[in-house]
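STRUCTURE:
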């Protein structure tokens, strides 16, 4: 079954030399080869401000680039979010992007007077792909993958996205060509599966 997939490239450096870009390219190639329809949002190539007040988030008017991203995400059945681990979590630019996009009226609705939020993105699934210098097991077991868990719980599940799967890629700074090739193959296979 063909799926609509949106790949959100969350590396703040839009230059293609970053491993996150190679991983995204591998996923996209696999997905398209299997007949899935794919769109890409490159956060590092977008220009948008950081939200500074609760009022901006809840009732501010999104810029055209953010409205375009929202329309792309609305089109999707499945989201793939890729980013490097910085200080235990996602880079600030990706967080700022998610704050801009996952606003009331798009991701959630306050129809019940602030007591309960209605989840507006129910029916979509996601995969989070994170690269890091440390071993992935250390991040998962010692640090409890706190940055990834926060994204899952406080952004994706809060807006109704489920199920959510993780791919944690450790030891990226080791420059092991064989390991990189294996990860690229793995992401291409995930793309073919549409998951």
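SEQUENCE:
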């Amino acid at each position: 079954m063909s799926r609509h997939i949106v790949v959100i490239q969350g590396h703040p450096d839009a230059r293609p030399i970053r491993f996150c870009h190679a991983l995204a390219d591998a996923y996209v190639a696999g997905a398209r080869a299997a007949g899935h329809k794919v769109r890409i949002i490159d956060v590092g190539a977008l220009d948008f401000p950081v939200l500074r007040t609760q009022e901006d988030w809840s009732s501010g008017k999104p810029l055209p680039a953010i409205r375009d991203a929202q329309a792309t995400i609305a089109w999707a059945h499945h989201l793939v979010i890729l980013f490097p681990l910085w200080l235990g979590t996602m880079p600030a630019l990706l967080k700022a992007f998610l704050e801009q996009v996952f606003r009331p009226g798009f991701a959630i609705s306050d129809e019940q007077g602030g007591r309960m939020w209605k989840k507006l993105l129910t029916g979509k699934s996601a995969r989070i792909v994170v690269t890091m210098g440390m071993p992935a097991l250390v991040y998962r077991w010692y640090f409890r993958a706190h940055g990834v868990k926060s994204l899952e719980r406080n952004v994706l599940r809060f807006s109704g996205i489920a199920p959510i799967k993780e791919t944690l890629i450790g030891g990226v700074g080791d420059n092991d060509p064989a390991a990189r090739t294996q990860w690229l193959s793995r992401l291409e296979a995930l793309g073919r599966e549409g998951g």
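REMARK: The chain has one domain: 4-193.
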